[in-house]
């Protein structure tokens, strides 16, 4: 039942009836990952979509053949659904999904969802809403890359990762944070050091304390 509720709360399945959700959930399979496990890679041929039951999954793209750096496109947490794109266009995986901590997922085969969509076309409204959300997120990411410098993007990502709390543990490594910001680790560390020097932030390893949220908000906008 808990899995069905998570599905119902996602935009993709927002217009799906309870009986169809029960069928989809019953045909899903729980998949457990440890930190560092790769769920799928760019250009893999996909057969399933996923919803996060616990933990965190990073969606990343590489910069090869130029270098080994990665850009983190999204951080998927409990209730987030991903891997649905190829269901709609029969394409390859456009990014890699990797666990950044111990995680549990519900794997849902495409064949199950396709059958449900064909029998219940009203479900497509949920799919449309999810795609609209994805576009809005990408528009925001593009806007940030154009109008915010590295320091501003670092402030914005830290505020997002804080979850609204003034004291928090960074759920990702400095390298992964740099991937989210879209800059080198050295430049991101320099930005964090500037916040500490200004008295806006305290840091002890991966533990952070926000001392001046309003000032970070301004720097992130």
Polypeptide structure, described:
This protein is of the alpha+beta class and 221 residues long. The chain has 2 domains: 2-144, Jelly Rolls (Sandwich), CATH 2.60.120.10; 149-219, Orthogonal Bundle (Arc Repressor Mutant, subunit A), CATH 1.10.10. It contains 9 helices and 11 strands. It has helices spanning 2-9, 18-26, 85-89, 110-119, 124-147, 150-162, 174-181, 185-198, 213-219; strands at residues 29-33, 38-40, 48-54, 57-62, 70-76, 81-82, 96-99, 103-109, 167-169, 201-204, 207-210. Strand 4 (57-62) and strand 5 form a beta hairpin. Helix 6 packs across helix 7 and helix 7 packs across helix 8. The longest helix has 24 residues, at 124-147. It is elongated. The chain starts with a helix and ends with a helix.
**Number of separate domains:** 2
Number of strands: 11
Arithmetic mean of pLDDT: 90
Q: CATH topology of the largest domain, anyone?
A: Jelly Rolls
- The CATH superfamily name of the largest domain is Jelly Rolls
The general outline is elongated
Strand content: 15-25%
Helix segment tally: 9
The biggest beta sheet reads: 4 strands, antiparallel
- The name of the CATH architecture of the largest domain is Sandwich
**In order across it, which strands form the biggest sheet?**
1-8-3-6
- Quaternary structure classification: single chain
Provide the low-confidence segments as ranges.
none
